[in-house]
Every structure is written in structure tokens, then in C-alpha cells.
Amino acid sequence: MPKGTPEEGEEKLRDKLIRKLTGRAPGAIEREQKKSLPDRLKWLEKKHKGSDKDAAKAAGISLTTWRRWRSGKQKPKADSIGKLDKATRDALVPKGRRKRISESTNKGGGTYAAAPTGGAQMSAWVTISSDSRPRDLNLGGNLPPGRLDQVVNAYVEKGEAAAVEELKKAIGEYLHVDPDVIHIHDVTGLDWGPLREPKDSGDDTGSGGTDEQGEIF
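^ that's the sequence the OP posted. Answer follows.
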């Protein structure tokens, strides 16, 4: 039987996804929004190696306006706050982590002498129609190259809920079903790393085989 409700599963999926994207618990933007405006700007400048010019450019704000905000001479309007939030989400996902995510899927993107190791993996209790069971989802070898870049982009552009929805779409593509019929009750693992060809193609990687959907068994 499922270990939790779909609502609890969705919360766990959100928690693990945001931690994997940012290294932080969900709600980072809300916590940043509680800080003073100068502190928010200082944080973004720090993420851009101390450059207010680069931080302002990343947020799509003129340097003059940025410095007026910083000094308290001007307050941002609602649309500018939205730009600031987007720039904050963008800065929360390190470049190295983006590269690992981008390289974690590879179906059709290259040939390997043996089944590659690593890549995007997810372990969860999933119900599809009446089929409810724990599944180890081998996303890495079964989704197109860079597919999970769209999850990162959804987070940066629209936030946490959008990122979760994009990941669920990717899972639906992997399982060949409409994401709306997928109910996730529990998430015990979510990980990604670049797909790698085993050094010795005759080695037993210990990962077992995969079924027709690419699930590890």
C-alpha cells in the first residue's frame, strides 16, 4: 500500500527537488523577500563576485536604478520586484549543478559500448491508474539530452510549483503516460549526475537490468 497521500508525496517531491536544485529547503525566495532591500541586493552582488553592475544586469535593471535602490533613494515597483525574485532564483542554482543536471539525461544523445552509469534517478511510490507500487525510475538513460534543463528553467522563470510540474511532465514522458494520471505518494530518492560509460564494459555495475520503460529492477 502507498506510504502517504498524493498531497504528502507532492510535498516530498517538492522538498527533494528544490534541495537538489538550490541546496536549500523550499521557500528560499520567501525568506529572501523578508530581508531588507539593501540586504537582498548585497546578496545578489555577492553571487556575482561583488559586482553591482553584473547583478543589476542579471536582474534586467539599470545600474543607476540598482544603486538608487541600494542607497534607499528609490523603491522598486511590483514588476521590478518580480525581476529581482527571478534573478534570486537564478542565482540560487549554481552553474556546476546546472551542468550536472543538463548532462544527466542522454537518450539518443550518444552511443556507449555498455550501459552507462549515473544520470538522473528517482525512487518513489507511484500510482498509475490501479497500478500502485514502489518504482526506481531510470530517467537518465530514457529522457532526451538536456530534458531536465526545462525543470531548472521553470524554477528560475516561475518558481517552485512550476519546477515540480515540469518534473512531473518529464516523469510522464518517461512512463509514456499523461502526467495527470500519475500520483506520487512517497519519494525516497532523487539524484542526478552525468551519465558515464563504464571504464570496463564487461564490469557488472550492480545496477541490474531495466524493463521496457527503463525502470531499474
